[in-house]
Amino acid sequence: MSRRVRSENKKVDRLPVDSSKLNMGNTYSSAPEFYYDIEFDCQDCGLHQTWTAKQQKWWYEEAGGYFFSGAVRCRDCRVKERERKQTARIRAGHEKDT
């Protein structure tokens, strides 16, 4: 998987990290000071995407996402994957169809 920091001007295109809100797990690593836009290619369809600093801040600080995780799918493929998993859980009898 290819991931690249996209920002041309790192001093302008960044958001500060609130390390008190991060789920760093059991690690000796320290949190970065800033979020930057990161480019990636969707692992399912190959579409080139940008995971913005704003989206990262929401994922890590508001949604409580594990800090060492990252975006790997575009929005459309994330929706399809969620639907695929839901269908599999229903077929396996782990959940009821709503």
List the helices and strands and how they pair.
Layout lengths: L2 E3 L9 E2 L17 E2 L2 E4 L6 E4 L1 H10 L12 H17 L7
Antiparallel strand pairs: 1-4, 2-3, 4-5
Question: What would you note in describing this structure?
Answer:
The protein has 98 residues and is an alpha+beta fold. It contains two helices and five strands. The protein has helices spanning 53-62, 75-91; strands at 3-5, 15-16, 34-35, 38-41, 48-51. The strands form two sheets. A three-stranded antiparallel β-sheet has the order 1-4-5.
Annotation keywords:
globular; three-stranded antiparallel β-sheet; 98 residues; alpha+beta
Q: What distance separates the N and C termini?
A: 35 Å
State the share of residues found in helices, binned by percent. 25-40%
Shape: globular
Q: Ranges with pLDDT <50 over ≥5 residues?
A: none
Radius of gyration: 16 Å
Explain briefly what this protein structure is.
The chain has helices at residues 53-62, 75-91; strands spanning 3-5, 15-16, 34-35, 38-41, 48-51. By secondary structure, it is α+β, with helices and mostly antiparallel strands.
